[in-house]
Amino acid sequence: MVGQASSLSLDSGYFSGADPRSARVPWTRSSASAARPLAVFASPPLENRTELFDNRKAKGGEFLRKVKTIAKRNKLAYRWDPERGKKELGPGLLADMCRQLARILRNGPAACRRRMPRRSSTPAPARRSAGSPVKAGGFFPTNVATNRLQPGAVLALLFAFVYLLFPTRNYYWDGVSFAIDIEHAQSWRELFNVHHLLYNFIGYGEYQLLGSRVRALYLMQWTNCIAGALLIWLADRLFRSLGVPPWNSAAGAAILGASATFWKFTTDADSYILANVFLAAAYLALRRSAARGGLLHVCATMMHQLSALFYPVGLALLWRRSRERFWRDAAIYTLVSAGGTLAVYAAAFRLAVHRAPTFAGWLTFHAKMPFSFDAARNAGWLLLGTGKLFAGGKLSPTAYLVGPVAVALLVFAVAGLANNRRRLLPVLSDWPLLVWVGAYLCFLLVWEPYNTFYRLFYLAPLLACLALAARATGARPLAFLAAALACWNFWQFIYPKTQAASNAPLAFALKQRTRWPEGTGVIFGEFVPDLWTISYFNPQVSWIPVEQPDAARVSDYAAQFARDRRQLYVDWTYLQKTGQSASRFHFQLIEPASALNGAGAAQGVLDRSTERHK
Known about the structure:
The protein is built from 24 helices and 6 strands. By secondary structure, it is mainly alpha-helical.
């Protein structure tokens, strides 16, 4: 394109005597947007792009009709005109094109040659970033081809470094459970988990690859740190694909990275982050391919079962993409996503070691009381849980220093949005995002509404709606909001959880490492989550399950350990089953001559060093 333009001069045709700043375009408006390079107009598959420049004798309206004809023929994207309130290839954009063309002509052939590659006589086709839609009905791209800086990618790398530097030590019990399953699995068939069907296999592969030298819990934490950074980058791409400017997209992605619950679980060992990575990728892929989006949806469901609720979002995207091809694409998407998921679950049911008697029972297995139908209470949990997605932590002495800074940044963000409230734009044009948010909001309104971490499934689309509404306000308000969240959440929520003292079972487990020598035995009545952490960080201890009180069995174990000159304890869960009152973290030393009797009365020597931990 530049090569064609370089053969013209300012004295030819319509541009004769054109001022380089305005190009004397008769339809120039004072509200014309900032100039954009013509390289955007030359993006493939634009045909006959030289037709615009060869029309040397075009005058006024003829030139306008020429540009509109070429744009309509090649389905170039329109841009949103906030003053007119509609999408159009309007006079402002045409004025920008004329300014750019006049600038190219004014620079002359020498300037054009400097921009061309040395080994080719024709310029390379203009590069279009992933966030620049080209089909009719979308927004005209604001991230132009000459913008080589990718702030979203840089931001993702920065967050990855921070996540890896400050991993949490306040482990959620799910991650500890996964690590125990991985390290104690005698066969890969023991790794199937109905709610996170294939997630354990990722940690298992890493654990085996490194020869069991690095503990599975840490490997899954590091994997989630990288996955969290990847999700930040995908969120930036998602925002840009909606027509949000690059710096606004980066600021919106920074809000995601600095959100309290997202930050915490990104540095933990759970499956929520990887599931959301695949869902964000599926949202982007479904705009182009129903089959590819369906495969990514299957991958998300393999990480967490709640990803199945994304199905109506996929249908909404296919409907918005093409109503004529909707039924065909919907059939392909359903076959791949639903059919593929059921096929994998059916195969896993046949291979799994621990499962329910029937396939339907295994597939729908859930906690005992997950549903709640108290509307008022659930609405309160909804508001509180959504707020906790963004900010968390407790008041501490550092709050008196961090709090004013965070509040000031928040005030700047709110003031920026308030001053630009007339520039806030509607988000209904991208209504599949609202379907995404609504599907999970409605389900989580009645299913375990008190658990905040499940709300991670609608955090990305919620922020996409925010970035979409504020795409014309500039990036500063969103950047101030991200900075406020990062400042508060790091010092009041994230950093305290990097300390073992924030996790009572972990602090107790680390203390007992020196008190329980190699070969010590512990009898427990129920393997509760507290014991998961204590046992995982004390692998030198033999953990013996005795689900029902059995004095003879305990006496046999005690005699066996005494012959080997090893110690044997019973924990609080076993003592409670024998009818005794035992507090949390209570372990009692048992001697051979003092086994528990059938009534459950404990005799033995109490180990005062492990009696209580508060």
